[in-house]
Every structure is written in structure tokens, then in C-alpha cells.
Write a structure and sequence with these properties.
- The chain has helices spanning 3-6, 99-110, 124-128, 138-142, 148-158, 177-180, 270-281, 315-333; strands spanning 7-11, 28-32, 42-47, 62-65, 75-77, 83-84, 88-93, 174-176, 181-185, 204-207, 216-220, 234-237, 246-248, 254-255, 259-264, 301-303.
- Helices cover 22% and strands 20% of the residues.
- The two termini are 33 Å apart.
- It has a four-stranded antiparallel sheet with strand order 1-7-4-5.
- With 334 residues, the chain is of the alpha+beta class.
- The longest helix is centred in the last third of the chain and has 19 residues, at 315-333.
- It has two domains: 3-145, Alpha-Beta Complex (Adenine-n6-DNA-methyltransferase TaqI, Chain A, domain 2), CATH 3.90.220.20; 165-309, Alpha-Beta Complex (Adenine-n6-DNA-methyltransferase TaqI, Chain A, domain 2), CATH 3.90.220.20.
- The protein is globular.
């Protein structure tokens, strides 16, 4: 059915009609803009008493980015009261919906991004005419969202605040990837030949060359006779649009074709491994025009462990603290 059959579409408030504050001071609410990630949708804050009540939308409301080449059509469910700007549309369900249903429909809307390339915008009737499923899959109702606070607390435990460099290290030196990691090809498996199995049921991550979602394309059943790559290693795409997309894998995993596995030669903290993911990815520019990294990954230069910036150690914990503090700020504005 059409989007307009499920939702009433409301337009946002132009920035010229509000005073946007750079910090959440006083009784304020977030002012939402288009963005490709939900974290970046907060453009600032506006005083709650300066906005007409019908432009204030409560938590658990769907909103859609309707402009911006890299932002249009991305849809999210807000976790706090907010005011949308004029390039954001709000969707109010015409029937009772659970939070899981709203998240499902937000994802369905986002999947229509390809229809609005070449400057076309999902505004007005174009947005209203997007086709959406009229029935919700059963798994949507039983899905459980990860508790943010518990997850952030867990992330803090992965971080370390101290590090003693090895005596043989040379500060400031660049070394080859193979000097720090054992680099080897992954399993080179085909996903369509594997049996799907949900994460909750014990499925093993299947890591492909995709750029997002930690490279995980699906979860699959254990394969008899093939041991997964151990947890704590890095995966690295060797070709494709996501060449050198490198991720830290917390669980044992299988890999698709053209994915390398990197095992640290010395024990490293999660902070360090995440930093090296970024260092490797920063070499992406070397592999434009279809060049692959299957032969040259080992030779790429990255910082010696002793030359890592001091901020690396304990960085996961600090980021988790910032997110927790931001969440507290948002909760106070509700």
C-alpha cells in the first residue's frame, strides 16, 4: 500500500522561524535536520516555549529526510521530543503501531533511496506514494532492541587506559601491516550456499566486503569441518567498492571471497585494534579504479605501536561516556 495510507505526513519548521541554539541550555528540544546517520540529525536546540505545540513531536515518532544528496530518504524513529526543520517530514501513524513496527517501516522507507537520485526529492506526493508492505512480518513483533545503556557499559569494559610499549619499538616509525599482523585469506565462502541462522539462535557472522554493519552480511549456521576465524581479529575487504573496509570482529566469524583476516602478532587492546582499522582504511585512496589489495595489503605502511597517539588508549570508554552524557541531556529535554 501507499505510504499515505499508513501515515499522515507533516512538514517541518523552517530555520528562519526559530532561533537555533548551539547548546542545550534551559528548557529546550533538539532541532532535527536531514542526515545519513541518526547521530548527525541534531542541528541544534530550540527553546520549547518558542515553538507552537503542533510542531513539537514526541519520542517514538518517525521522521524522514526529504532533501540533501547524501541524506534524502533516510528515516528514523526519534527517542526524544523534537522539532523538525523544513527538510524533514514527520509521519504520524493512522493506526496504532508498536515501536518495532515503526522501526520496521522507517527501514522500509529508507530502502527507497534509489528512486530519488539525480536531484529528485522525496517530498510531497513523491513521499506519499512510496509503496510499503501492508502486513508486518512476524519476526518484527518478537525482535528485541539492544538496551543502549547496557551496550555502552559493555563497550566501556573493552577499553583500556594504559599501555607499555615494547622495548624494541621505534617511536614515530612506520611499519608494514605484516610486521604487526599475521595476514591471511579468509574462508572464501558463498553466502547462497550456506544455511541462514539468526544471531539469537547461535548464528555465526558472515563477513563480506560490504562497507557498513561491521562487514556482516548475514548470520549462518555452523559449517561442519570449517572452523570460524577466532574473535578478536580484524576483517579487511580486498576488492570492490568497499576495498580496505576494515573491522574489529568481536565474535568468531566466516568470510566471503576477497576478505582477509588479520591477527595481531602481539596482544593488543580493543582501542588499538580499532585504531588500526582506521589506519588501514585510510589507504583506500591507493586502490581506486578497481585496483585490489590482495597482494599489497601486507606492504601497506601503518604506525608502529609505540607511535600511537596517547588518546587512543581509553578512547572507547571516553566515547561511551560522551554518548551517555548526551543521552542524559536529551532525556532532560523530553
Amino acid at each position: 500500500m501507499k505510504l499515505e495510507d499508513l501515515f499522515e505526513v507533516k512538514n517541518g519548521l523552517a530555520s528562519s522561524a526559530v532561533e537555533v541554539l548551539r547548546a542545550p541550555v534551559g528548557d529546550v528540544v533538539p532541532y532535527i535536520r536531514p542526515a545519513s546517520t541518526q547521530q548527525r540529525t541534531v542541528a541544534g536546540w530550540v527553546a520549547k516555549n518558542s515553538v507552537v505545540a503542533n510542531h513539537l513531536y514526541p519520542a517514538d515518532t518517525i521522521f524522514v529526510s526529504t532533501d540533501g544528496e547524501g541524506s534524502h530518504t533516510y528515516s528514523y524513529v526519534s527517542k526524544f521530543t523534537f522539532v523538525p526543520n523544513s527538510n524533514v517530514s514527520v509521519l504520524l501513524p493512522k493506526r496504532e503501531m508498536t515501536l518495532n513496527e515503526k522501526i520496521y517501516y522507517a527501514r522500509c522507507i529508507t530502502m527507497n533511496r534509489y528512486k530519488f537520485s539525480y536531484g529528485r526529492k522525496p517530498k510531497g506526493d513523491r513521499l506519499k506514494q512510496i509503496e510499503l508492505p501492508d502486513t508486518i512480518p512476524g519476526w518484527v513483533h518478537s525482535a528485541e532492541a539492544t538496551d543502549l545503556w547496557s551496550e555502552l557499559t559493555r563497550i566501556k569494559t573493552l577499553s583500556t587506559g594504559s599501555y607499555e610499549p615494547a622495548q624494541h619499538s621505534r617511536r614515530g616509525a612506520l611499519v608494514r601491516v605484516q610486521d604487526i599482523f599475521e595476514v591471511r585469506y579468509g574462508h572464501s565462502l558463498e553466502l547462497n550456499r550456506l544455511q541462514p541462522l539468526s544471531k539469537e539462535a547461535g548464528g555465526i557472522p558472515f563477513v563480506s566486503r560490504k562497507m557498513g554493519d561491521n562487514g556482516i552480511a548475514a548470520y549462518v549456521a555452523p559449517i561442519q569441518g570449517i572452523e570460524p576465524t577466532p574473535a578478536g581479529e580484524l576483517s579487511c575487504a580486498l576488492s570492490g567498492n568497499g576495498v580496505l573496509s576494515t573491522f574489529y570482529q568481536e565474535q568468531p566469524f566466516y568470510t566471503a571471497f576477497h576478505v582477509a583476516c588479520l591477527r595481531p602478532l602481539e596482544e593488543m587492546s580493543t582501542d588499538e585494534l580499532m585504531y588500526y582499522c582506521s589506519c588501514i582504511w585510510q589507504n583506500k585512496f591507493r586502490f581506486s579504479y578497481g585496483r585490489q589489495a590482495n597482494r599489497t595489503l601486507k606492504e601497506l605502511l601503518i604506525p608502529n605501536r609505540s607511535s600511537l597517539p596517547s588518546w587512543v588508549h581509553g578512547s572507547l570508554s571516553r566515547v561511551a561516556d560522551v554518548v551517555m552524557q548526551s543521552n542524559n541531556s536529551f532525556q532532560r529535554t523530553r
